[in-house]
């Protein structure tokens, strides 16, 4: 009975949108999508607005950051290909790309890491409104990275207790 209940609740098709969380092995959005959907498309897009000049005339994204992003997206693609499928990479405005893809594949939900900074939250709200018009839900997940994965030295007793609790 439990399996048939899960099948009823499962989404037919979903999109996992890699935006700021560029990890695969512990990505809550990817885990949720693979557990809750029958078919999953993974996506990363390069938004041209992120590479414009700021209001003060400086590049919003420097060359080293661009190189890092390209390398990271390539790594995500290789990791996904080894386990599931290809990563779809697009260049364009996310509110257009996501509407086109959700319509093309009949996606029920787009899973994305919940943004926290002002500009990203505003952009996310615009995207959510655009895909909602198509009847698609934006399933956002807030990632909590365990201290053990941050690679930092823990000096306090409290930090050690938190780390032990996370491992249990």
Blueprint (SSEs and pairs):
Blueprint: H1 2-9, E1 11-17, H2 28-36, E2 37-46, H3 63-83, E3 87-91, H4 94-105, E4 109-113, H5 118-132, E5 137-141, H6 157-167
Parallel strand pairs: 1-2, 1-4, 2-3, 4-5
Characterise this structure:
By secondary structure, this protein is α/β, with parallel strands linked by helices. The chain has one domain (2-167): Rossmann fold (3-Layer(aba) Sandwich). The protein has helices at residues 2-9, 28-36, 63-83, 94-105, 118-132, 157-167, and strands spanning 11-17, 37-46, 87-91, 109-113, 137-141. It has a 5-stranded parallel beta sheet, sandwiched between helices. Helix 3 (63-83) links the parallel strand 2 and strand 3. It is globular and about 45 Å long.
**Main sheet properties:** 5 strands, parallel
CATH superfamily: HUPs
Provide the CATH topology. Rossmann fold
| Number of DSSP strand runs | 5
Summarize the structure.
With 168 residues, the protein is of the alpha/beta class. It has helices at residues 2-9, 28-36, 63-83, 94-105, 118-132, 157-167; strands spanning 11-17, 37-46, 87-91, 109-113, 137-141.
What labels would you give this structure?
disordered N terminus, disordered C terminus, alpha/beta, Rossmann fold, globular, five-stranded parallel sheet, 168 residues, 6 helices, single chain
